[in-house]
């Protein structure tokens, strides 16, 4: 079976990028023909190692160049780039002749539904229904436009059952397949004795970094010998680095790394302060290393991964005091950390590649046979 993935780029050390590369590597290793078409890779290197058998094509659209302009000029530039993208993508799909197309961003669905012909199209939602469809300016127009495009896809795949239920309000064929965690050959295990809490994620509004700082200030007052290690980058980096320097509260900041499992294993707790989290790959990754998690109970990822009080703690969103108390509870009680870490390892195994990829194989066979 020949499968073509379409995505923006694989240049960022992010969860979506890692999941896509891991899935494609697994598929090509199990006899599938796999191609990846990107719009904006340009000269950037791949963030994660990709199997050489995967055919990789970048269309070099450079959508981000539209932001050189303002107003009508930006809209014209975007329109021109979309036309070029559609033309080049059509040529590439004609050359590839795939059995299945997988689109991993809703931004390209309207173009793909015009170009795919009779080829089945699967759309992966790495966001939430409420974020893609029900928010922003011109919400009603946006909802209508997105729904018209998405309804022409064979299947939309959500990451959690709760998000799948939301999508079923407007789409007839929705499946739930969680993200997988591709375990490295030598998975390190946390000793849980290091006085170190870890946060890993983009420096973006979604991750609510102001809450991260507020919570850590509270924790640092009680446990000044503990360190918060932050791994990430993004549009809020300058602001965040300024705040870290101003607070002087035992926070260390590191760039994203492909060897994140080693970083988990050097830590004793993971914290996650997101406003929303479609899945939250960092949680099961850290849990596989035996690291318990404290996270806001935001829609919808954390509650689908963490069992509150057993392998981590779920905290009511925006309650920084309760979050700090839970974090301090784990910091001050090594026995609790160890018990939760043990359950965390066992719980996270359900996201192993051996459990998740057969779900994708079955879906590919279903859409191809229709």
Structural account:
By secondary structure, the chain is of the alpha/beta class. It is 43% helix and 15% strand. The protein has 14 helices and 13 strands. Helix 7 (209-222) runs parallel beside helix 8 (237-247) and helix 10 crosses helix 13 (334-348). It is globular, with a radius of gyration of 21 Å. It starts with a strand and ends with a helix. The model has no long low-confidence stretch (mean pLDDT 94).
Summarize, please.
By secondary structure, the protein is of the alpha/beta class.
**Mean pLDDT over the residues:** 94
Q: Structural class of the secondary structure composition?
A: alpha/beta
- The termini sit apart by 15 Å
Strand order of the largest sheet: 3-2-1-4-5-6-7
DSSP, total strands: 13
Proportion of β residues?
Answer: 15-25%
Q: How many DSSP helices?
A: 14
* Unreliable stretches: none
Helical residues, percent: 40-55%
